Structures are given as C-alpha cells and as structure tokens.
C-alpha cells in the first residue's frame, strides 16, 4: 500500500510540474531530481512511423505526409520524457526511413527497426502514427496493443484515457488489441498510438498545428506516467 501511495504522489508531482505556456508549447519546469526516482534507469523506445519514400497516410486537404507529423509528435514526446529523466531512444531521427530509398521495402524497414529495439532492450515501446479511413467524418485518437499482452493492454488503456481527456472528451474509442509487428514482437509493454485521422479535414487541420501536437504528446506522456506509477 505504501509503495502504491508513493507512486501516486510521484505521479502527481511529475504531472504537476508541467504546464502550458501562452503559445500552447508544453514545457517542464522545476522538476527536482528526487521526484524522478520513478524513472531512474527507465528506457523507452519511441518509433515515429513510416519515413523516406513511405510517407504513410496523406492529408486529405493539405496532402501533408503522415511521416512528417509522426516525427514532430515523437520529438515533442521525447522532450517531455527526458525532462523527467527517462532514457529515450528513437527508431527514426529525421525524414528518412531506416534504409535507403532505392532498396526500401516495408519488410526491411521493420526488420531494421526491430534490430534497433532489440539492441536497446527497452522497458516500454511507443509507436506514433496518424490514421486514415474512407469516410472523412471519422475521427478520434486511438491506442492499440497486442491482444495477448496484459501489460500492453493496461498501458494502452491508460494512454487512451489521457488522449480522450486532453484531445477530445467526446471520443468514444477505446484501446484495441491488434496483431501489429511492433506490438507482438517484443516482451516489453508496447503500444501504437494513432493520434487522429488525416483523412478527416477537421482533425487534419488540428493535427498540423503545434498546439495540438503538443497536447497529443502530453496526453501520451501522462498515460505513460500513469502506467509507470501503477506498476512500480
């Protein structure tokens, strides 16, 4: 009971030192080292989906590539996690894929991501994506986990709850089990976060703003903190 209470207090402290500036940028302020004990030695891999010639989904209005938005949100999440002492590793650090365009295949790209993740041996894996659907009215962030992973489901549920809280309280989507490569391949708790639909004009417009990307990153961050506190 004492351990759980300590975790809850630490969670409150960590989240409490974060605030939104007038411009909407999320900043970390006044985080003390002693409050970061929960994150000592913690390693998290952030995977920005797609890259290179594989741009992913294309925005219905602006034709912006999903890969660009994925990378932007990933870096914002990286900054938040590092502000509390988490060791963060990226599978993709720029607009390129993990292999040259002239030899690119999805299978090779996923294998290279997998090799990087295996080398890190992370405690948690988070893959950032944007969604698509033929019906342009469909919207809403959603988090996925591997169906056979109880820890993945717990993490995904906590992230999904925060996405709903910070991005859209009317979002009825729940964490969902899916057999995605990055979710099924590793024993570490893993989630794939679809931050919204690039095929919905309303949501695409939001997803392309710094303010909304900040909030998406912050929501995922809070979900991660919730999970880490719960299992510590």
Structure description:
It contains seven helices and eight strands, in the order αβββαβαββαβαβαα. It is α/β, with parallel strands linked by helices. The strands form two sheets. Strands 4-3-5-8-6-7 form a six-stranded mixed beta sheet, with helices on both faces. Strands 1-2 form a two-stranded antiparallel ribbon. Helix 4 links the parallel strand 6 (142-145) and strand 7. The longest helix is centred in the C-terminal third of the chain and has 22 residues, at 210-231. The chain is globular. The termini are close together. Mean pLDDT is 87; it is low at 1-34.
| CATH topology label | Aminopeptidase
Shape: globular
Strands of the largest sheet, in order across it?
Answer: 4-3-5-8-6-7
CATH superfamily: Zn-dependent exopeptidases
CATH architecture: 3-Layer(aba) Sandwich
Succession of helices and strands: HEEEHEHEEHEHEHH
Helix content: 40-55%
What does the largest sheet look like? 6 strands, mixed
Compute the number of helices: 7
Contiguous uncertain segments of 5+ residues: 1-34
Give short descriptive properties of this protein.
single chain; 232 residues; alpha/beta; Aminopeptidase; 6-stranded mixed beta sheet; two-stranded antiparallel sheet; 7 helices; 8 strands; disordered N terminus
What is the structure about, briefly put?
The protein has helices spanning 2-16, 66-83, 106-120, 150-167, 181-184, 201-207, 210-231, and strands spanning 18-20, 26-28, 43-48, 87-90, 124-131, 142-145, 176-177, 190-197. The protein is an alpha/beta fold and 232 residues long.
């Amino acid at each position: 009971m004492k351990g759980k209470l300590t975790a809850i207090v630490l969670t409150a402290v960590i989240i409490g030192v974060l605030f939104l500036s007038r411009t909407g940028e999320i900043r970390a302020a006044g985080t003390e080292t002693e409050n970061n004990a929960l994150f000592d030695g913690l390693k998290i891999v952030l995977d920005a989906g797609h890259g290179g010639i594989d741009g992913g989904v294309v925005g219905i209005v602006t034709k912006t590539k999903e890969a660009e938005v994925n990378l932007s949100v990933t870096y914002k999440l990286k900054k938040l996690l590092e502000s509390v002492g988490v060791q963060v590793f990226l599978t993709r650090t720029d607009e390129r894929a993990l292999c040259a365009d002239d030899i690119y295949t999805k299978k090779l790209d996923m294998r290279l991501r997998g090799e990087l993740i295996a080398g890190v041996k992370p405690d948690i894996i988070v893959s950032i994506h944007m969604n698509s659907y033929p019906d342009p009215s469909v919207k809403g962030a959603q988090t996925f986990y591997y169906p056979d992973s109880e820890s993945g489901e717990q993490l995904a549920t906590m992230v999904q709850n925060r996405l709903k809280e910070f991005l859209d309280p009317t979002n009825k989507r729940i964490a969902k089990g899916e057999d995605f490569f990055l979710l099924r391949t590793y024993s570490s708790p893993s989630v794939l976060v679809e931050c919204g639909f690039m095929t919905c004009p309303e949501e695409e417009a939001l997803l392309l703003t710094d303010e909304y990307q900040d909030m998406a990153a912050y929501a995922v961050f809070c979900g991660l903190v919730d999970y880490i506190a719960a299992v510590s």
